Amino acid sequence: MGSAGKRVAARTVAEMLLSEFRDARVVGVGTGSTVALVLEELARLDPSFFAGRVFLATSLDTLLRLKSLGASSVSLGVQTATPEVYFDGADEVVLGEGCPAIKGRGAALYLEKLLAHYSSFSIMVVDESKVSKRLGELGKPVPLDADPLALAGIENTLRRMGVRFSLREAGGKDGPVVSDTGGIVIDVDVKDVDDVVALGARLESLPGVRASGVFAGVFDRVVVGYDDGRSVVFDCRRGVTGAEGSAPRA
């Protein structure tokens, strides 16, 4: 489940970018397989979209993908500009006020959080398998991007808090996963946590933690694709971190 829905959601977001956000000159681009599908759909529908715009990427993978599609002005993060519109995927999301979500399986959470926060308008794109009623129920861990110079202190603090965690192991090299900005990725188990949003905020406040994978109140819209060919748009209340219900629109 999810592959057909992912394609439907990606096509819907690509069409939004080519219509509603056609005049946006600075575009932020997230990381992951769903984002790659949005870029693929943009290239199919209008290859000229990549010319004459500034693109802000959240990972080297996205940066290289944008360059391969013809984008000439691409940089990481928000060093020189802030996005007029930003789109990204998620590992899990609750559809409601603030649209709280878990992100960061691609280890790009620090730059993803910067772009989501500083963008004028942020769109999340997911398939139906990523939607839950309570954040954490899908069993996805919450990643932390940790400064290597603070690693022992962070680990000791997490143990004192009674938090279950592990360093994410790299697949293609020995040792832990290191983000594109030099952070060590720590995965926090939240399956039995009642308030994941509150825990995410607490973890992000620890010295040395640059970002947590809990994103709440930073997306304006969520586009959900379904395997039956439908896509549904949910409007979020940006700046709100709760999970109260909101009305979908087709």
What descriptive keywords fit this protein?
alpha/beta, Alpha-Beta Plaits, 8-stranded mixed β-sheet, 4-stranded mixed β-sheet, 24% strand, disordered C terminus, ribose-5-phosphate isomerase activity, isomerase
What topology does this entry show?
Layout lengths: L2 H17 L6 E4 L3 H13 L8 E4 L2 H9 L4 E4 L8 E4 L3 E3 L6 E2 L6 H10 L3 E6 L3 E2 L9 E5 L4 H11 L3 E3 L16 E5 L7 H9 L4 E4 L1 E2 L5 E5 L5 E5 L12 E2 L1
CATH architecture identity of the largest domain: 3-Layer(aba) Sandwich
Please describe the biggest sheet, giving its number of strands, its sense, and whether it closes into a barrel. Answer: 8 strands, mixed
Class derived from helix and strand content = alpha/beta
Structurally, the number of domains stands at: 2
| CATH-derived topology of the largest domain | Rossmann fold
What level of helicity do the residues show? 25-40%
Unreliably modeled segments: 243-250
Assembly category: single chain
Describe, in plain words, how this protein is organized in 3D:
The protein contains six helices and 16 strands. With 250 residues, the chain is of the alpha/beta class.
